[in-house]
Amino acid sequence: MRESVEKKVLSENDRLAAELRQRYRAQNILCVNFISSPGSGKTALLEKTLGSFAPGTSVAVLTGDLQTDNDARRLMRYGFPVRQIVTGGTCHLDARMVERHLNELGFRGPGLLLVENVGNLVCPSSYDLGEAAKIVLLSVTEGEDKPLKYPGIFHRASLMILTKTDLLPHVEFDPNLALENARKIHPEIEYLALSSRTGEGFDKWLAWLSTLQQKIRQEAPAAII
Amino acid sequence: MHEIGIASSIIESIEAEARRRPGAHFTAVGVRIGELSNVDRDALAFAFEALTRKTPLEHLRLEVEWCLRRQKCHACGEEFVVKELELTCPKCGETRGTCIGGTELDIVYLELEEPCEKA
Predict the structure, then answer these.
(1) Which of A9, A81, A224, B104 has the most CB atoms less than 10 A away?
(2) Residues of chain A whose pLDDT is less than 70?
């Protein structure tokens, strides 16, 4: 006897992610999820981003790794709440891990929640964390064909950031070709290029974040009286 | 290699179903997997087999329906399979469209034998 089931394999994660999304909306939190290969510059981008915020800005970071709290220690220097999620071998963050660490962090909106996923272009793309946007990073020391090799994440990301642009004179990397490849997979993907070392392109990145934050604020439900 | 996690989620769903139907014997589970889901069929089959070995689900067959990326044209509404990353509508030439398939990661059906009622 065959019985129809019709449910998502990751329905439990999707349920928790929907709860997180609701919580972000209620508290006016913009959550973004950074995904890239190991070594593409996620932590460096976050360091430079945190460094640009005035003290007292409402921002928190969750950073995922298989082992060590090295990234959290790097990020804590900026004075904002940071929590390391050690997955102990799991190759991605899931909604349950985010929920637990967010509770432990005690972060409440309104504000910005930056989630640095485990360095991996495959698995993190399957797990919804309730974020408003997935952001995929590609560094100029990688290949321009990464979007073609890992279409899943480029298909799901709202924004692609080309990192380490200060190295462009030293490597054979064609940014236009990389973008062309990404848009073959996802024609509407937004694109920014920057260097976390020199700060080149950072104004546009911060403007992108601020625009999205304003949009979230406008869509937020009216305050409960 | 998150196929182990995916296989675990499938098994958890079957176990939940098994608790609802005491005595039922499950013979197969059907899943739908899209080419953009980042799940490798062979790795999933391997993980599923490894995780069910020496458990009550040991002989459960995993039946995979593989789904290609599909697009719906914004101009004429044509629905087509995307071959070699070609997003242009084969009917009218429009390049804008919406992805309507290829990201599936669903449990579709279960095959089971219910216990015979005692006469």
Answers:
(1) A9
(2) 221-225
What's the pLDDT tens digit per position in B46-75? 999 999 999 999 999 999 999 999 999 999
Distance from CA of B112 to the nearest CA of A (A): 5
Distances (CA, A) of A78 to A54, A69, A187, A206, B97: 10, 16, 36, 17, 43
pLDDT level of residue B119 (50, 70, 90 thresholds): very low
The answer to whether residue B24 scores a pLDDT higher than 80 is yes
Question: Looking at the complex, does the CB of residue A185 fall below 8 Å from at least one CB of chain B?
Answer: yes
Check CB contact under 8 Å for B110 and A2.
yes
Distance CA B114, CA B112 (A): 6
3-class SS of residue A8: strand
A10 touches chain B (CB under 8 A): yes
Give φ, ψ of A134 to 5 degrees: -95, 135
Please count the structural domains in chain A: 1
Domain harbouring B15, CATH code: 3.30.2320.50
Asked whether residue A147 is domain-assigned, the answer is yes
Query: Where residue A75 sits, what CATH number does that domain have?
Result: 3.40.50.300
* Sign of CA pseudo-dihedral B97, B101, B105, B110: positive
Q: A128: domain range?
A: 11-216
Q: State the DSSP string of B47-104.
A: HHHHHHTTSTTTTPEEEEEEE--EEEETTT--EEE--TT--S-TTT----EEEEES--
